[in-house]
Design goal:
By secondary structure, the chain is of the alpha/beta class. It has helices spanning about 45-55, 60-70, 75-80, 85-95, 105-115, 120-130, 160-165, 170-180, 195-205, 215-225; strands spanning about 30-35, 135-140, 155-160, 185-190, 205-210. Strands 3-2-1-4-5 form a five-stranded parallel beta sheet, with helices on both faces. Strand 4 (about 185-190), helix 9 and strand 5 form a beta-alpha-beta unit. It is globular.
């Protein structure tokens, strides 16, 4: 990640990237990772694949999640307020009201099969910890999604379903920083969703938008000043 002993210029924004200003910044003390789409395979790819198979307009599910807002079934799932059959029924109903027949249960089954750990990311997390930086997982998840098996890889593990808060609510980022005993500006945050990165940047974090593991790790190496692979 970033050389813990050096202050350097803030990197230019890339993808969801940094703040873009020049000048000395404090050395990074921690790296915060989203899970799905970053440390794990992307559920967004699963959603897109299922939309294509069912002839549903591309982006329909994600637009529905955004437009339904904090009271929508998906948001309630990730805050631990809905689970299982109650979520399936509520989300399927929202899809139908938006004009498309969709099975949330089938989607979750496909996500469970497809979203697997990315070895290069887990190796990078280990190297970061070996260099004395702290690491955290900060994930929007749901009860029983299996992400808890990754807990041992991180110093701090923040789950939306357990905390009752979800990204991009700034309070969940602030909670992660308190658990890491750092200020937001001392953290690098990786996520694959722009709105989640926007909140992190506003709090002062250096951010990296993840489009592929290789791209993200190369940017992270540039920020931290040491190798994360090889």
């Amino acid at each position: 990640m970033k050389a813990a002993s050096e202050a350097r210029s803030e990197p230019k924004a890339s993808g969801g990237g940094g703040t873009g200003y020049a000048g000395a910044v404090p050395a990074k003390r921690a790296v915060i990772f989203d899970l799905g789409g970053v440390v794990l395979g992307s559920p967004l790819h699963v959603i897109a694949e299922l939309e294509r198979e069912q002839g549903i307009p591309a982006g329909f599910v994600n637009r529905l999640v955004v437009e339904s807002g904090p009271t929508g079934a998906w948001a309630r799932l990730e805050r631990g307020e809905l689970a299982g059959e109650a979520f399936f029924a509520a989300f399927d109903r929202e899809c139908a009201q938006a004009g498309q027949a969709f099975s949330a249960q089938r989607l979750m089954e496909r996500i469970a099969l497809a979203v697997q750990p990315r070895p290069a990311m887990l190796s990078a997390v280990r190297r970061i910890r070996e260099r004395g930086l702290r690491t955290a997982a900060l994930t929007n998840n749901w009860t029983g999604d299996g992400t808890g098996t990754l807990r041992e890889h991180f110093d701090v593990f923040v789950e939306s379903s357990a905390l009752g808060l979800r990204k991009p609510d700034p309070r969940i980022y602030e909670h992660a920083c308190r658990c890491l005993a750092i200020e937001a500006r001392q953290a690098v945050f990786l996520d694959d969703i722009g709105s989640n990165l926007k909140t992190a940047r506003a709090l002062g974090m250096t951010t990296i938008k993840v489009t592929a593991p290789e791209q993200a790790l190369a940017e992270l190496e540039a920020v931290l000043g040491f190798a994360l692979s090889g």
